[in-house]
Amino acid sequence: MGPKLEAFKKRWAEYEILNQTLSLLSWDMETYMPEEGIKSRAEHISYLNEISHGHLTSSKTLSLLEGAESETAGHDYYSDEAGMLRAARRVFEKESRVSEDLVKRLARTASIANSVWIKARRESDFGIFSGVLSEIVGLCSEKADMIGWEGRRYDALLDLHEPCMTSAVIDPLFEDLKSFLVPLAADITGRGRQVNTDFLAQNFSIKSQEEFGFMILAAMGYDLKRGRQDISAHPFTTSFSPYDVRITTRYSEDSLLSALFSTVHECGHALYDQGLPLDKLNTPLCQPVSLGIHESQSRMWENIVGRSRPFWNHFFPEVRRLFPGQLDDVDPDSFYRAVNRVEKGFIRVEADEVTYNLHVFIRYEIEKSLMDGSLSAGDVPDAWNEKYRRYLGINPPDDSAGCLQDIHWAHGAIGYFPTYTLGNILAAQFYGKAIEDAPAIPGETGRGIFSGLLSWLRKNIHGHGSKFTSEELVRRVCGTDMNTGPYRKYLEEKYGEIYEL
Ligand code: ZN
User: Fold this and answer.
1) Which residues are CB-contacts of 463 (< 8 A; sequence separation ≥ 6)?
2) Adjacent-strand bridge partners of 230
3) Which of 324, 372, 458, 466 is the most buried (most CB within 10 A)?
4) Phi, psi for 463 (deg, rounded to 5)
5) Cα of 47 to ligand 1 centre, how many Å?
6) Active-site residues: which are they?
7) Nearest-CA neighbor of 453 among 441, 462, 465?
């Protein structure tokens, strides 16, 4: 490795260390910080953010980056050096093109929008939120124009969450899936057999839920010497480096499944972060590819593995043991069906595998229209409700169960939603390839063993860090482009069988 690349890496490591420290402050804020702590914590975070942004976008960083780029100009496109500098260049461009003034205005508006959104949601009145949403859309448009875009302005925002992805690639994937999922959901709820979930309506000891959660974490291969699990209002995963990747969950006595599946989901995220290449620590490569790839990991574990029949054949006896007398009349198969029950609901985060993406399409279509100006903020509730009627056949009773349910837009995170469905599509593609390479995986799941799947993921996905874009990674791993085939097949077979279609 040449001296210029070395000098650049040293500079970049400082930026990573600042960001890791920032993540620790945010994690603490969500878990242990006392209520009044926010008064000084907000200042800590905003000051460190400023330093980190300044460090990255400084002329010194740029000249070291340019030096390293010219030094490695002849390297193979897929070499670590070239991949590392491409990843760094992407981050640098995104951060440096947006003016500091706009960053501050966005942060200020988003913090106002957050409290306005809470009030609007509580009162179930979109009118309260409409004005500030319109401001957010305006600021996001300015941001997109500063970053630059070719096809659609929306693409600049999408790229912040899914680097190098465009709506031109996503649109046909989503349209294809929509034409399949709308009739499937209608079929299941219309003529499918009944799935009984009555036995889930009981109180389940939180201590036993916790014990079960840790049993699953250990089985999945989550390294507790490099991580921990705490409680927070909304479950999340945060990584300071592959040496310290933390997850959170939340327990509720009357819901056995909520903590359980949130634990499996977050663990899927955490396994990815723990598996990033340690020999690339503090370089631009020791990062996940994108939100879509991250979500492909969490959803593969949660849905394809965690909601599978072999998984419950193995773990249901443990559940019965941990909650004595509560599930004696239930057999593993009934439990398997219950955890896969399909229901047309209003709330995205409570949705099952079949209807989940329909919730995403609605948000994706609305935010694209907001960004191209064909929809104004004030018209969001009508557009929202009309799409719920069309895709799900249900009519949201009010704004709080409708267009005010998600916090994303209040945070200025336009372009985030499609990564959830990309994650679902990719999870099926990756898993299909994993069992083709290692056919023992489903049998191992039935014995509570996940080392085969994890080592496949480590080798094929986690270990590359951010060397490839999501499209490059899929092509490399699966030998095809992103496509909905494996996901459709997976849903069709699984739910066709459960609902006897
Ligand atoms: Zn997730």
Assistant:
1) 275, 276, 277
2) 248
3) 466
4) -65, -15
5) 28
6) 266
7) 441
Sheet of 237-241: strand order equals 229-231, 244-249, 237-241
pLDDT at residue 108, as a whole number: 87
Residues with CB under 5 Å of ion ligand 1 are: 298
Q: What is the CA(477)–ligand 1 centre distance, in A?
A: 22
pLDDT of residue 136: 97
Q: b/e string for 45-63 if b means 16 or more Cβ within 10 A?
A: eeeeeeebbebbbeeebee
User: Tens digits of per-residue pLDDT, 317-368?
Assistant: 999 999 999 999 999 999 999 999 999 999 999 999 999 999 999 999 999 9
Helix (H) or strand (E) holding 336: helix 332-338
| CATH code of the domain occupying 3-150 | 1.20.58
Domain ranges of the chain: 3-150, 167-499
The string of pLDDT tens digits covering residues 281-295 is 999 999 999 999 999
* CATH number listed for the domain at residues 167-499: 1.10.1370.30
pLDDT at 233 over 90: no
0.90 exceeded by pTM? yes
- As a whole number of angstroms, the distance between CA 86 and CA 90 comes to 6
